[in-house]
Structure formats: C-alpha cells, structure tokens
Amino acid sequence: MAPGRRNLILGAVAVVAAAAGGIAGVLGLRRQSGAKELLSASFPDLSGRRRQLSEWQGRPLLCNFWASWCAPCREELPLLDAAARENASIGLQVVGIAIDNAANVTQYLKSMQIGYPVLIAEGSAISLMRELGNPSGVLPFSVTVDRAGHLRQRRLGAYSAQELRSDLEALLR
Question: I want to staple 94 with a disulfide (CB 3.0 to 4.6 A). Which of 42, 101, 116, 133 is the partner?
C-alpha cells in the first residue's frame, strides 16, 4: 500500500474513533466510575432517618432508581424484591432510591410488600443518576456495585427476569 494511501486510511480511522468517542460521551456511554459518588450519597428512608449508601459497602449492592408514577418501575419492584429475598443469605443488598416525594412513595408502598430499604431522593438524585451514566434521567435505572466497591452494571429501563438473573450472577461471583 502506498504511504499516502496508508496515512489517509489511518487518518480516517482516527477521525471515526474520535467521533465515536465524542458521540459516546454525549450519550453517556463512556465508562464512568460513579461508585464513589453513589456510596457517598445519602437520602432519608421512609421514617425520615438519613441513610448513607456506604453503610452497605462491602456487600454486593443493587441500587434501583424509581418513582411511584413510573409504570415500568412499578412492574419491576416485585422482581427486585424477589431477587433481594432469594439472595439475602449470600449478602446481596437491594436499595430503592425513589425520585419521588415521601407521601407518594409511602402511599404506593402500602399496596406493595417490599423487604428492602427504600430511600427518598425526590429530585436530588437526578445529578447522581447522570454521573452514573444516565444522562437523560430515564426511570427505572439500576446500578450494581460489587463487594470491592466497583460499579459493575448499569441498566436503563426495567429488568426482565433473565436480565436481572444475568446481572446478579455476574455480581455475585
């Protein structure tokens, strides 16, 4: 291959790679740490007591951002609750982070039996979701953190049973 043609091809590849990196950044797809920000976050629980997510550090953690008005969120909650119960003996901790007000969450949860902690973030967790790789604030949004405190998975939208099982298998290894 002629040197001029080779340089032209290499230059085109570099432009495409740079553009892809820029697009990934705009779409929030770049690998972001986020675990430190997540574990340092704190929100009140349903009783009003401030809870810091770091209290579950050292355990596999699934944090689910949701709202009572979000239909996919409501459908996903029983699946998450079942997973929390099934995997509690091996240390899994599920924490719900409601992007909602306490009155709405409390009212909704009267009809649901959720065994894991639910924290009330209202709108204050939207910037945290963006840092975790959800630039549009899509709900539901879940992240998993391993025992070592590393962010393992991000999930935009509701889990299916198979997707949840797959993410938890990877997290609990």
Answer: 116
